[in-house]
Design goal:
Number of helices: 13
Shape: globular
Order of helices and strands: EHHHHHHHHHHHHHE
Oligomer: single chain
Structural class: mainly alpha
Strand order of the largest sheet: 1-2
Largest sheet: 2 strands, antiparallel
Strand content: under 5%
Number of strands: 2
Helix content: over 70%
Radius of gyration: 24 Å
C-alpha cells in the first residue's frame, strides 16, 4: 500500500549566514559575555553564597591588582599567543597538529642543553644565537616528522603528533635523570645564561618578540603566496592539486613554520622566563592554543584578544579560590560557563535558525 501520510513539516531548520557586519558580530559576542556573567553570578550565589560582584572584583584584582600581576598577565599572554601562532598555519591548512606541547618542550630542552653545556664556553651573543638555532631546529624536527609521513603515506597526523608529545616528555625526564646529579630530578635555574632583560623588565623581551611574530604571521598568512597556498589546501586538496599547488610540499613547509615558532616559544619559556626545564614546563599551553586559534578563526590579530580572555580567566579563577577559600572546582565552573557562552555564540555568528510559518518552512 502507498503511504499517504504527509510528512510533518519541520518546526525549524538551520542555515548558514551571510557574513555579518563587524559591529553586529561584536554585539553578539558582547551579549554572550553578559549572559555568561549573569549565569555565573547565579551559580556563584547558589554554590558559595558569596556576592557575585565581589567575586568578579576578585578576578579583576587577580589579573590587574599590582604591577607584578600585570606583568605576569602579559607574560602569560605572550607565551600562549606564541604557541597559538605556531599551531595556526597547520590548522588553517586542516593539518590537525596536536603536538605543539611536545614541539615547544623539545625547543625548551634544546635551549636548556645549550645553557648547561655551552653557557660558560661561548661569548654571550654567540650563546644566544646558538640557543635560538638549537630551539628552532628542535621544534622543526619534531613538527616535520609527522608532516613527512602525512605527505608521503597519509598517516593520521592527530595520533602521530599526540604520540610525539609523550616522547618529548620522556626525553625531558631522561635528561633530568641523567644530568641532575643530586637525584632530585629538578634542574636548578640558570639565569646567568638566560636571555637579557629589556629596559630592566624581566618579561618585556618576550612581549616584544611575540608582538613582532604576531604581525609577521598575520602578513604571512594574509598577503604571501605561501599563505594563499595554505588557505587553498585547507579548503580542498583536490582544488589545490588542480591549480598546480604541490600539496605535499605545502604540508611539509607549513609544519616547518609551525615547528620553528614552537621552538621559539620553548626558547622564551626556558631562556627568558624559567631558566630551567621540567616535564610540565609547557603547562598544557599546546592544547589551549588550539582553542585560542579556533576562537580567533585563525586570525593572528584576533588571537591577541582570545588569548587575553583565556589568561584573564585563568588568573582570575586562581585569585577567587585564594580570596574566598573556595574549591578550585567552583572557580573552574565559572571559567567554564564563560567559555561555553563565548564559544557557543560563534554558532550564531555562522548560522541562523529559521522557523516554519503556517506549517511550511520559511525559505
Amino acid at each position: 500500500m502507498v503511504n499517504t501520510k504527509k510528512a510533518k513539516a519541520q518546526l525549524f531548520h538551520i542555515v548558514k549566514r551571510e557574513p555579518l557586519a563587524w559591529y553586529y558580530a561584536l554585539l553578539i559576542r558582547a551579549a554572550a559575555i553578559v549572559l555568561a556573567l549573569i549565569v555565573s553570578a547565579v551559580v556563584i550565589t547558589l554554590l558559595t553564597e558569596k556576592n557575585p560582584i565581589e567575586v568578579y572584583a576578585s578576578m579583576i584584582n587577580g589579573a590587574f591588582g599590582s604591577s607584578l600581576r600585570i606583568w605576569s598577565l602579559l607574560q602569560n599572554i605572550a607565551i600562549l599567543l606564541c604557541v597559538s601562532l605556531a599551531v595556526t598555519p597547520a590548522f588553517k591548512m586542516r593539518f590537525w597538529n596536536c603536538g605543539a606541547e611536545g614541539q615547544v618542550l623539545v625547543g625548551g630542552l634544546a635551549t636548556v642543553s645549550v645553557m648547561m653545556f655551552l653557557g660558560d664556553k661561548l661569548p654571550t651573543p654567540v650563546l644566544f644565537l646558538v640557543m635560538l638555532i638549537a630551539s628552532v631546529l628542535a621544534g622543526v624536527i619534531w613538527a616535520v616528522l609527522p608532516a613527512v609521513t602525512k605527505a608521503l603515506w597519509n598517516t593520521n597526523e592527530t595520533l602521530f603528533t599526540l604520540m610525539m608529545n609523550y616522547v618529548a616528555i620522556q626525553l625531558v625526564a631522561f635528561f633530568l635523570k641523567t644530568f641532575v646529579k643530586n637525584g632530585s630530578g629538578v634542574l636548578s635555574p640558570m639565569p646567568q645564561y638566560g636571555l637579557p632583560l629589556l629596559f630592566g623588565k624581566a618579561y618585556l623581551l618576550n612581549i616584544v618578540i611575540v608582538a613582532i611574530l604576531t604581525v609577521l604571521v598575520y602578513i604571512y598568512l594574509k598577503y604571501t603566496k605561501q599563505g594563499y597556498e595554505i588557505s587553498v589546501v585547507g579548503q580542498s586538496e583536490n582544488t589545490a592539486k588542480y591549480i598546480g599547488i604541490n600539496v605535499k610540499k605545502v604540508i611539509v613547509r607549513t609544519l616547518v613554520v609551525s615547528g620553528a615558532l614552537c621552538g621559539i616559544a620553548g626558547l622564551l619559556i626556558v631562556g627568558a622566563t624559567n631558566h630551567t626545564i621540567s616535564t610540565d614546563t609547557v603547562g598544557g599551553r599546546g592544547f589551549t592554543a588550539i582553542m585560542v586559534s579556533w576562537l580567533a578563526k585563525f586570525n593572528p590579530i584576533f588571537m591577541v584578544f582570545t588569548t587575553f580572555l583565556i589568561v584573564f580567566l585563568e588568573k582570575g579563577s586562581q585569585q577567587i579560590s585564594t580570596d574566598f577559600r573556595i574549591p578550585n572546582a567552583i572557580s573552574d565552573i565559572v571559567t567554564g560557563i564563560i567559555l561555553f557562552f563565548v564559544i557557543g555564540c560563534e554558532f550564531f555568528l555562522q548560522y541562523k535558525i529559521v522557523f516554519a510559518k503556517s506549517g511550511k518552512e520559511n525559505a
